[in-house]
Amino acid sequence: MKLTRMCSLDSAAGLELFQSGQIPESEQEWGRFIPPQALEVLGKKEVERQSVLFEVFKSELDYVNDLQIIKDVRAISSLPPSWLSLLLGLYYAINKRPV
Q1: How far apart are CA 18 and CA 7, in angstroms?
Q2: pLDDT tens by residue, 50-94
Q3: pLDDT tens for residues 9-44?
Q4: Are residues 31 and 49 in the same domain?
Q5: 86 near 92, Cβ under 8 Å?
Q6: Are 49 and 92 members of one domain?
Q7: DSSP string, 44-95
Q8: Same domain? 18 vs 54
């Protein structure tokens, strides 16, 4: 999805797109979510400050996603071998790959 100008982050649509991960990584910059008029009012130092804070926020989201993956893998690995074989078979059947 190529996005030219984002809607404001405080709009429901912009926030939903960001939180659902539908915005490409290259487009996830704080200034793209802010109306141009607001950027003009803020000074250069404040724009840089907000951009850095936004990067920290994105890093925290990535960290939470990584923790969820670790949790899911640990839950799957604690299943009995017969369940793992069943799940693997289902995965391959869904993806049309041989076991």
Answers
A1: 11
A2: 999 999 998 998 899 888 888 888 888 787 888 878 887 888 888
A3: 556 677 788 878 888 888 888 888 888 888 889 989
A4: no
A5: no
A6: yes
A7: HHHHHHHHHHHHHHHHHHHHHHHHHHHHHHHHHHTS-HHHHHHHHHHHHHHT
A8: no
